[in-house]
């Protein structure tokens, strides 16, 4: 009998094929779903009665189901497309994936971007935004073109340490062949792989390598654009413009309040590196920064090393507020404990005369919100209500 672990977006899509046993902690008794699958509490799993196990990507290796599994593969392994483009890294993978889909005809984006592989069109070219969680469990499938954005610490609590996180991100290189192409940061130029490697230190390296003439975006989206254009040129031997492409909401999204003051919704910044990159654009301005949430076990010190060079005041929220407060004191950075987002906005409103106010939390959102989009939407609504 085939098994699915967790009943989330990925596994629900696979379950539509029927004939699965599905294990999840939220199931309190054995039942059936509309596709005839058996739904069971996690404690009912018996590895002797399972020929195959596919986990929801977010289930960590420490979970008892994972530890008991004897035939564990990923969603990618199960579908194992013959030709696909994988895009991963710490920051920018969603935008890069969307840009590649925008450029490539007859293509479809999926994976971590929210479209499970089970729902994708097999007649289209698959462009897969690929998380470290999925890569951790993937042992068979490989990309034909692998795009790796810079790797910085993230999801440390899930992987256990930065080295394991990095190992997962680099793992597709282990399975690639001489027919495959990998575009990777220069620091990994000596990583052993059979794939043809194109390495870069920055956007300009790739612009020079591919001879690009038409670049639209500034950093941090410039690298995303160049990587997407690189994929197109590898496949079609010419350059194509991203004119008309629009970056998603909640990524360094600027808007004005009723007093014409500039606010920035960067709720998508769920790690230290993303926040550092967002702030660079406003380095010469007075900054009111809303920071905090679930820090995911990251090392926050590099962020505060950067913040001490800014004219900045912090407004701290979320479950790990105490960690941010400790570092603000250590680096002598002005801060206020606000607890929740609404308090932070109201506090900023009282003193915001010049500069910019930014929500760039360097943290996950699930401690107080449904997801980063919910956090960003709440942020914008609260700012809009200011008088």
Could you explain how this protein is built, in words?
The protein has helices at 9-15, 64-68, 75-79, 93-103, 132-137, 156-159, 162-170, 203-210, 221-236, 272-280, 301-307, 321-330, 341-351, 372-384; strands at 2-5, 20-23, 31-32, 38-40, 52-55, 84-88, 107-111, 125-129, 145-148, 181-185, 196-200, 253-256, 262-265, 287-291, 312-317, 335-339, 356-359. The chain is α/β, with parallel strands linked by helices and 387 residues long. The protein has 3 domains: 2-72; 76-236, UDP-N-acetylmuramoyl-L-alanine:D-glutamate ligase (3-Layer(aba) Sandwich), CATH 3.40.1190; 253-384, Protein-Tyrosine Phosphatase, Chain A (Alpha-Beta Complex). Strand 15, helix 12 and strand 16 (335-339) form a beta-alpha-beta unit. Helix 10 runs parallel beside helix 11 (301-307). The longest helix has 16 residues, at 221-236. It is globular, with a radius of gyration of 22 Å. The termini are far apart. The mean pLDDT is 96.
């Amino acid at each position: 009998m085939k098994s699915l672990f967790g009943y989330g977006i990925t596994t629900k899509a696979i379950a539509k094929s029927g004939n699965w046993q599905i294990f999840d902690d939220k199931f309190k008794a054995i039942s059936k779903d509309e596709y005839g699958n058996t739904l069971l509490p996690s404690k009912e799993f018996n590895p002797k009665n399972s020929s195959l196990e596919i986990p929801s990507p977010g289930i960590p290796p420490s979970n008892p189901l994972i530890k008991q599994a004897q035939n564990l593969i990923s969603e990618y392994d199960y579908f194992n497309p013959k030709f696909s483009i994988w895009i991963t890294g710490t920051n920018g993978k969603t935008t890069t994936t969307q840009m590649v889909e925008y450029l490539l005809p007859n293509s479809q984006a999926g994976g971590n971007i929210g479209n499970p592989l089970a729902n994708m069109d097999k007649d289209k070219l698959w462009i897969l935004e690929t998380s470290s969680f999925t890569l951790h469990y993937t042992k068979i499938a490989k990309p034909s073109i692998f795009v790796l954005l810079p790797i910085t610490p993230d999801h440390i609590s899930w992987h256990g340490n930065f080295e394991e996180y990095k190992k997962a991100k680099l793992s597709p290189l282990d399975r690639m062949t001489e027919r495959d192409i990998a575009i990777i940061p220069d620091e990994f130029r000596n990583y052993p792989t059979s794939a043809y490697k194109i390495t870069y230190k920055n956007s300009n390296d790739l612009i020079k390598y591919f001879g690009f003439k038409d670049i639209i975006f500034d950093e941090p989206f410039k690298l995303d654009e160049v990587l997407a254009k690189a994929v197109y040129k590898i496949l079609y031997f010419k350059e194509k413009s991203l004119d008309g492409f629009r970056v998603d909401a909640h990524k360094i999204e600027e808007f004005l309040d009723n007093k014409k003051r500039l606010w920035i919704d960067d709720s998508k910044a769920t790690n230290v590196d993303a926040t550092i990159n967002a702030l660079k654009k406003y380095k010469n301005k007075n900054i009111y920064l809303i920071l905090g949430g679930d820090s995911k076990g990251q090392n926050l010190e590099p962020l505060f090393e950067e913040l001490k060079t800014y004219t900045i005041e912090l407004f701290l929220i979320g479950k790990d507020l105490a960690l941010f407060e400790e570092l603000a004191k250590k680096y002598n950075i002005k801060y206020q404990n606000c607890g929740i987002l609404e308090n932070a906005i109201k506090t900023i409103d009282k003193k915001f005369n010049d500069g910019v106010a930014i929500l760039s939390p360097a943290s996950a959102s699930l401690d107080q919100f449904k997801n980063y989009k919910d956090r960003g939407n709440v942020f914008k609504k609260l700012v809009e209500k200011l008088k």
